[in-house]
Structures are given as C-alpha cells and as structure tokens.
C-alpha cells in the first residue's frame, strides 16, 4: 500500500482517470455525484474500465477463486467509511492519511512492489523503498494491483529472491 492517500488520489486523478474511456468516466462520476455507487451500472462501468485494467488484468470471469471470494466478502460497513464510496480515489476517513515521513523508522527488510498498471504509482512505491532503511523495490512491468496473478513470474521470482537474500543476511 502506498504511504500517502493524497499521493494515491493525485495519481488516480492525473494518470489513471485521463487514461480511462472518458465517456465511461463521465458516467461513473455522474453516478458517484448522486450517491448511486450501489447501482449495478456503476460496477458495469468500473469492471472493464478500472478493475480489469488496474486491479487484475484479465476478464473478471477468469479471476482466480481467492480473488472472487475476497470480492464477495468485502465489508462495505468498514470499507466505505475508510476508503469512501468511490473506487477512483479515497474520500473516507483515510483521505488525509500520510505516513511517508515515518518510512525511515522502518528498520526491518522491506520489499515494496510497484506495477505498471497498479492503482498505486509505481514511482512512488520505488521512492518508498529508498526511504525504508533496508528497503528494496520490485517492479512488475506487466502487473496491476494483483501482480501475483497477472505478472506472476516477475512477482514470485522477486519475492522469493528477496526472502532468500534476507535469510542470507543480504537485505
């Protein structure tokens, strides 16, 4: 997770939303403006225009079972107050959250993972890895938020390499 929700929102606004189909984005924003985030049309628009591009880069009917179970059991009574009702940025209680200045306090080996198509800015993730004392950065060029599925070789090899290095004292 990115250490700054304001940075997360800025990336969504300046990078992700301009890349979207603008007609779909306008309809999504119109639904959000009148509080219709639970309207089935909202998810109809989000799935191909956001989720399948930035959460998991494959058609939803091919999403792995663990992902589908997770989506089915998201608790909106917790998620919405924290994240906010929009899937295109945070507006809930976490909106002002920024722990970037605290990254230097993390002393354990830490792997930050960035992905080309993630909802998190991969450059910001790389910057975070440099602020953590024993940080390392892994970039998944074909990945999204769930790179463990859509850029599996890069992700798994990077995680395994990191763990082996930590075990060998090469953090």
Structure in words:
The protein has helices at 5-19, 22-33, 40-55, 65-72, 76-83, 122-131, 147-150, 152-167; strands at 110-115, 135-140. By secondary structure, it is mainly alpha-helical. The protein has two domains: 5-83, no CATH class; 100-167, no CATH class. It has a two-stranded parallel ribbon with strand order 1-2. Strand 1, helix 6 (122-131) and strand 2 form a beta-alpha-beta unit. The protein is globular and about 55 Å long. It starts with a helix and ends with a helix. The mean pLDDT is 96.
Give a brief rundown of this model.
The protein is mostly helical. Helix content is 52%, strand content 7%.
Structure keywords:
171 residues, mainly alpha, 2 domains, two-stranded parallel sheet, 8 helices, 7% strand
Distance between the termini: 21 Å
- Helix and strand succession? HHHHHEHEHH
Strand content: 5-15%
Shape verdict: globular
Count structural domains: 2
Q: Over all CA atoms, what is the radius of gyration?
A: 17 Å
Helix content: 40-55%
Strands ordered across the widest β-sheet: 1-2
Total count of strands? 2
Please outline the major beta sheet: 2 strands, parallel
Helix/strand/pairing category: mainly alpha
Mean pLDDT: 96
* pLDDT < 50 runs, ≥5 residues: none
Total count of helical runs of at least 4 residues = 8
